[in-house]
Amino acid sequence: MPDELLIGMLRLGLPISRHEVSMVLTVAGRKSGMPRSTPITPMYVDGKRFVVNGYPGADWVRNVRAADEATLTAGRRCERVRMVELTPDPTNARDWRAACPCSASTRSRSVAAMSNSERIRPPWWLKYVNKVMIGLQKLGVGFGGKGPAVLTVRGRKTGKPRTTPVTPMTVEGKRYIVAGLPGSDWAANARAAGAATLHVGRHAEPVRMVEMSAEEARPLLRAFPVEVPSGVGFIKNAGLVTGPNPDEFEALAGRLAVFRLDPVIA
After folding, report:
1. What integer is the mean pLDDT of 250-258?
2. Per-residue confidence (pLDDT) for residue 69, from 0 to 100
């Protein structure tokens, strides 16, 4: 899973970014009592540290509310901290929303209320995890038939090859890829190019990218949480669904791009 890879890198003290001090937050789970970890990037304001929730309804936030205390890990150094949730100032709500996109006013937003044209910005850590996954694929490391692969497609603006990890699923003998976020760059590139190369380990296969209509995508999105359970958490953390509910995934038709991978016949 992406979070597990990132947490492992941070615990080893590996540098993730020159511009961000990334850490791991560990808190007791509100239901299991077991330690739960998530990567975070604290910010410093007036000498105090703050953490902003990147997505509405994140599990780690609910765990923090219940526990009040957590452990902050940076490399090999651990520190116990108290977690104090801030509430928006009604007299300054506009400024609060600008600084913290996931304040109480946005957490209460329902999935149905989100605009179909809304583009959700990918989490900051995704590009680093993608680089790790792409590097492993280039080394010939395979992840099995249902594991991630690497899709290479020509950029719609630059014309240069762009790569991204994907997890194809097979439904009725045909392969499909579902975008994890609305407005994904790779989906826009695939839409413009109509063709791509799928890499699994050292094997490369040219494919045609055929985008499904909203109606065609509905049954495929219903199948997604069963066929690609590892992708449910990412979409849930983005606030698009509350869990592996087929009805909620089906409702994303027209928002999440779905492509069929057709083999190129020479």
Report:
1. 93
2. 86
